[in-house]
Design goal:
Blueprint (H helix, E strand, L loop, with lengths): L4 E3 L2 E4 L18 E2 L14 E7 L14 E2 L6 E5 L16 E5 L7 E4 L13 E6 L4 E9 L7 E5 L1 E3 L4 E2 L5 E2 L6 E8 L7 E7 L8 E6 L10 E2 L13 E4 L5 E9 L2 E9 L10 E2 L8 E11 L2 E8 L6 E6 L5 E2 L2 E2 L1 E5 H5 L2 E4 L2 E16 L4 E13 L8 E9 L7 E2 L15 E3 L4 E3 L2 E9 L7 E9 L14 H4 L11 E3 L2 E2 L2 E8 L3 E9 L4 E10 L2 E8 L6 E9 L3 E8 L2
Parallel strand pairs: 1-11, 2-12, 39-45
Antiparallel strand pairs: 1-14, 2-10, 3-8, 4-37, 5-6, 6-7, 7-8, 9-10, 10-11, 12-13, 15-16, 16-17, 17-18, 19-20, 20-21, 21-22, 23-24, 24-25, 25-28, 26-27, 29-30, 30-31, 31-32, 32-33, 34-36, 35-36, 36-37, 38-40, 40-43, 41-42, 41-44, 44-45
Length: 574
């Protein structure tokens, strides 16, 4: 059988306290910062940003891998995309694979690429997942390299990232023992930032239609041989699945297969960090007619699995499966609850003289805030409001249902986006993490208006999670309990002067005492020197920084605290 190589690259986002080793340099000829302009679209919502032009809907499509990740500070975001091939070929629509990151909550984006080894490409099916600690982020970016419809490579780049630009170490290459993997799903172990797992479906060529996984326990330097996760899956259903970690070795993997000739949502579990897997079991589907490979998601919330599957048949409903909050059971013996999301989200609601009519459509995602017990199931939906607010347009939006009591009760949300500019059913994905800042809970999503064989744009959407009945959940909810939330507290970093010769003064405010660091990087992202690292008292600080020894050029000063990170630019001129 044909050997297939997989390249993995680990991306470390905003690791301001991590020295960049001088040997970690690769792909300098093939990897350049994008010159694409990234613009706000204020004519819709200030939360929307156009990330890039993409060659096809498959720049996002495929929920095996989630194509958006957000760090716990709420500022650091990462996505992937494929720009249009040139000249454009609808059968090979992508001119490589690009990585796109924001460190200011999506206001502006840095585009890096191309990181693929083959181009043009037919499919990408990307996935992103990361691990965060106090000082930095480690992200795995995976994609499928498919020039002519048959898989040749799967890729994932290992990059050390300080503000700009990233540096590449030499990517390890492994042979997945002929399983011909498709649709990777990366997941980082929350117990161990060096342990990650990638799942994929063995499909086409010499594939056997089973799902497999690979492990790294050293941050991507080496990878295990493939471990079988599921038996062979009915290929007409698109058998790739989605995997999420819990803690203490628990993992949950959900996918679709047939049962007695009928499509059904399945799952398997692991309690030993993904090295052995349970016998496949079915989820208690409410309707089961037409489950599709891009119509599901899962997450492990407080070590309990949540899985959402959408039955696209006219008689089907979107369904959420999770253990009974009051009597959950345990791995292998969960007491499942099956929630008909349509029954909650497709209704007419009245609030303060306004009538809201909402209809659930497709593209479900599961997100949660681990510090706030807020669980969101997002999806594409249609809205009609009477009377309409100024500027309101009835149509399709990102929407959802939210629970703030572990799933005992659910409430429909107001729109989580501006109007979706989709003439077709372009996919939407919401990051697994919700972030609460200053008593407002945000969800982070990416979507495209591209179609199969047609160029479009990929967008980022920052949505505010608020129930239609605003008294239940929304901005300002829980002020007394969360007014000391450490997420994204401003540090007020300032540098004077910004054009320097021999020295400059750096001032900042520490909202509370704790560990911190102040470091200087050059324009390539190389650490030039550590100005200070250690304990900092709360309050304002002023530090003199000597710059006389620096060559002329642009430099970034990065302030890192236990809760936030800020950067400032200086220009050295003799």
């Amino acid at each position: 059988m044909k050997k297939v190589s997989i390249i993995f690259i680990l991306f470390s986002l905003c690791m301001a306290n991590a020295d960049v080793s001088p040997q970690i340099l690769l792909m300098e000829d093939s990897f350049t910062q994008s010159k694409r302009s990234v613009q706000r679209l204020p004519e819709y919502f200030p939360s929307r940003t156009s990330i890039a032009e993409v060659g096809d809907v498959r720049s996002i499509l495929g929920t095996a891998g989630k194509n958006i990740w957000v760090g716990s500070n709420g500022n650091t975001i990462a996505v992937m995309y494929g720009p249009p091939s040139a000249p454009y070929d609808p059968n090979q629509p992508f001119d490589g694979v690009w990585i796109c990151c924001s460190t200011d909550r999506g206001a502006y984006w840095n585009n890096y690429g191309a990181v693929s080894t083959l181009l043009p490409l037919r499919r990408i099916y990307p996935g992103v997942d990361g691990y965060e600690d106090t000082h930095g982020y480690l992200c795995y970016f995976t994609w499928q390299e498919n020039p002519l419809g048959y898989i040749l490579n799967l890729g994932c780049v290992i990059v050390d990232y300080v503000p700009i630009p990233p540096h590449f170490p030499i990517p390890p290459t492994i042979l997945p023992n002929d399983v011909c993997p498709w649709m990777l799903c990366p997941a980082v172990n929350p117990d161990d930032n060096m342990h990650a797992m990638i799942t994929a479906w063995s499909y086409l060529l010499d594939g056997n239609r089973a799902n497999y996984c690979w492990h790294t326990t050293n941050g991507g330097n080496t990878w295990s041989d493939p471990i079988q996760v599921t038996p062979p899956v009915d290929q007409t259903l698109g058998g790739a699945g989605h995997f999420r970690w819990g803690t203490g070795g628990y993992g949950f993997f959900t996918y679709h297969d047939s049962l007695g000739g009928v499509e059904y949502p399945y799952y398997v579990e692991s309690t030993d960090y993904g090295y052995t897997w349970s016998v496949p079991a079915t989820l208690p589907a409410i309707t089961s007619t037409q489950f599709w490979w891009h119509e599901f998601d899962c997450e492990v919330i407080n070590d309990k699995p949540f899985a959402v599957h959408n039955d696209l048949d006219a008689s089907g409903v979107m369904q959420l499966f999770y253990p009974d909050p009051d009597d959950p059971g345990s791995p292998g013996a969960w007491n499942w609850t099956a929630l008909d999301i349509d029954s909650v989200g497709s209704e007419t609601f009245a609030y303060q003289g306004t009538t809201w009519t909402t209809t659930v459509i497709q593209y479900p995602s599961v997100a949660f805030n681990p510090d706030f017990d807020a669980i969101l199931v997002s999806y594409k939906a249609s809205y009609e409001i009477t009377p309409p607010p100024p500027g309101w347009t009835d149509g399709n939006y990102l929407a959802g249902i939210v629970s703030i009591d572990s799933g005992r009760t659910w409430y429909p949300t107001r729109p989580l986006s501006g109007p979706l500019l989709q003439t077709v059913g372009g996919p939407i994905e919401t990051a697994h993490r919700l972030v609460t800042t200053n008593d407002t809970t945000y969800c982070y999503s990416t979507w495209t208006d591209a179609d199969y064989g047609f160029i479009g744009n990929q967008y980022f959407e920052l949505g505010i999670v608020q129930t239609i009945d605003a008294s239940i959940f929304g901005p300002g909810y829980g002020i007394e309990e969360y007014n000391n939330d450490p997420v994204s507290i401003p540090l007020n970093l300032h540098v004077f002067p910004t054009v320097v010769c021999n020295a400059c003064c750096v001032s900042f405010n520490m909202p509370k005492q704790g560990e911190g660091s102040l470091k200087l990087f050059d324009a390539t992202g190389r650490l030039v020197k550590t100005i200070y690292t250690g304990y900092l008292k709360s309050g304002f600080h002023n530090l003199d920084v000597t710059t006389s020894e620096l060559p002329n050029g642009v430099y970034m000063i990065v302030l890192d605290s236990e809760t936030s990170q800020e950067t400032a630019k200086i220009i050295k001129m003799h």
